[in-house]
Design brief:
alpha/beta; 12 strands; about 45% helix; seven-stranded mixed sheet; five-stranded mixed sheet; binds nicotinamide-adenine-dinucleotide; 15 helices
Length: about 425
Amino acid sequence: MTNGSKVYENVGRQFKKAADLMNLDPDVRKILEKPMNEIVVNFPAIMDDGRVEMFTAYRVQHNNVLGPFKGGLRFHSSVDIDEVRALATWMTWKTAIAGLPLGGAKGGIQFDPKQYSQSEIERITRRFTFALGSNIGPEFDIPAPDMNTNAQIMAWILDTYISTIPPNDRQCSYHVVTGKPVDLGGSEGRDKATGQGVVFLIERWASNYGFDLNKATYFVQGFGNVGSWTARLLKPFGATLIAVEDASGAVFNPKGIDPAELFEYAQSHQGVSGFAGASPVDHEAFLGTQADIFVPAALANQITADTAPLLNVKLVAEGANGPTDTDGDTILQDRDIHVIPDVLCNAGGVIVSYFEWLQNKRSEFWDLEEVDRKLHKMLMKAYGRVKDKSEEVPTDWRTAAYIIALSRLEAVYQGRGIFP
Ligand code: NAD
């Protein structure tokens, strides 16, 4: 069983739990169980030494009854069809929970970008975009950054896409991707949006439960976009970062690690390993860090039957997609460890992507203050809906969030019917 199939199996179990509990219409259930479209492309790209290498990539479009397909693109050697199916399905729930007029999709190229030069990555990205052709589009399916992709990659996708459509459509198609550089129609605040959202939600959770963030300690897995922004934005609240793990290893300092210093170091040393302001720790010790909050912001299936018993925290704020599997969830619930689930916790990214899409469509530019204010408002509404639903049912927050998403989708299917 690949890691991707384990992740996808987990998506199915989470879905079943919520669908059973809410008595989801059996026909709608059948429809939502499967993605609408699955695109697999095998394409060549020219390497710096003139060789041709073949790549396999995926775009899974899970559902678009609420609006155009929306979801990130991942560059990673573990990307496979099941992983992308799982991530696409989560996007459908996430956009529905946030109340966005968007559906769910995800894509990825199966390769390790660290083994390739910048010019090779550019050619791979452009060739992938070309291979996708009209399977993406500003009113149809809109990619965004995810693991190992960033604003530069989005700029190449934009450029390739608009260079291959009729000239008349080019200027009005910038919303084919979000997470672009600001100069190319990106939104202020998109870069930090996911981490900003995680911080807004932790802050709200803390004030709800009388928890003093100023005295809190936390640790983070993954120090890329989501993990590092979460840490840098939590600092003003007085919370102390005491451990960080990324692909290079894990570091620990009970007296505190300065997020901005660690970020500078990780940028220039390709990871946190070797940072002078902390000591190395192994993975198990890292997971067992005695702290108040754990922010997983890297990979799926990190909190499982094996690892959930190791955690010594009060709150898990899921920056990553799918960091906790259903066995892990059960153990966390039994141990009274609260979870802000991924489909809510990391929704800041897709919310500001939606803002970017809107700004492009309206030829507007919002300043950072406006973006942050609107993000806060949308996330707090979603938080309130999930918390209320979890008390009303009653159930855990993940299942409550799923029930909100599934109810919205069920109402649309029941209203529209099936054509033809
Ligand atoms: P990124 O590529 O910027 O960073 C990924 C981080 O994970 C890096 O620090 C990397 O070293 C670390 N990592 C990789 N393998 C690891 C391992 N085996 N152990 C520990 N750390 C490891 O990616 P990102 O955009 O920050 O995405 C991180 C997670 O957040 C993913 O699950 C992604 O789907 C999710 N997410 C991202 C966004 C976004 O806007 N970027 C939005 C929502 C959810």
